[in-house]
Amino acid sequence: MEERFISIEECCNHYSVETEFIEALEEHGLLSFVKTESAVQLSFNQLPHLERCIRLHYDLDINYPGMVAIEHLLAQVHELQAEMRRLRGL
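Given the sequence above, the corresponding structure tokens read:
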């Protein structure tokens, strides 16, 4: 299946956020963009991650370094859960 993309401008309009917010997420390593000749785009696969960042920042007032720390901890939790499932399957 072909990967689909959405432009940063469309994301900002859809989620009612500033372009600077999404750019700051990329600067802090929380998102990655695909840059083409015509636009800067975000993979549809990253939209759930963007939505989580929006909730963390706007609803819970978490700053960018805090979001980086939360994402790191969530990745560790997912790794531990996968390891537990693997060990239970032995």
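The longest helix spans residues 64-88. Try to locate this feature in the token string yourself.
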